[in-house]
């Protein structure tokens, strides 16, 4: 299968950089799959799962949104947060979920409501990744 270069960048580190066969990520309006030779695009991505196919195997990571750029057989993803399931601190994710749920029960201005709603989605995504990983190893 043809490959392309993938770089997943966070402000503090290069999360992933290698040649891959395919990626699938949740864009704002649905999932986007990218393979070698994909047409150039730039699109925002949402909170969800980043799936990377390398050497015929799928790797999965929790991603908290960002920007996806495809250009000349290279894909760059810029994100504030992306983690492999084994990097996720389950207790910290649970605490973030509970904190966001408590805040969302209050009367908040629209911008704060959106911020805490996004925090809840990020925490739920991280917890879902941890649970899926547990299910695959049992």
From TrEMBL:
It is a peripheral membrane protein. Residues 4-81 form the ATP synthase F1 complex delta/epsilon subunit N-terminal domain. It is found in: Cell membrane. The keyword DNA-binding does not apply. Pfam families: ATP-synt_DE, ATP-synt_DE_N. SUPFAM superfamilies: Epsilon subunit of F1F0-ATP synthase C-terminal domain, Epsilon subunit of F1F0-ATP synthase N-terminal domain. InterPro entries: ATP_F1_dsu/esu_C_sf, ATP_synth_F1_dsu/esu, ATP_synth_F1_dsu/esu_N, ATP_synth_F1_esu_C, ATPsynth_dsu/esu_N. Residues 86-130 form the ATP synthase epsilon subunit C-terminal domain. Keywords: ATP synthesis, Cell membrane, CF(1), Hydrogen ion transport, Ion transport, Membrane, Transport. Produces ATP from ADP in the presence of a proton gradient across the membrane. Belongs to the ATPase epsilon chain family. F-type ATPases have 2 components, CF(1) - the catalytic core - and CF(0) - the membrane proton channel. CF(1) has five subunits: alpha(3), beta(3), gamma(1), delta(1), epsilon(1). CF(0) has three main subunits: a, b and c. This is ATP synthase epsilon chain. It comes from Caldicellulosiruptor naganoensis. The lineage of its organism: Bacteria, Bacillati, Bacillota, Bacillota incertae sedis, Caldicellulosiruptorales.
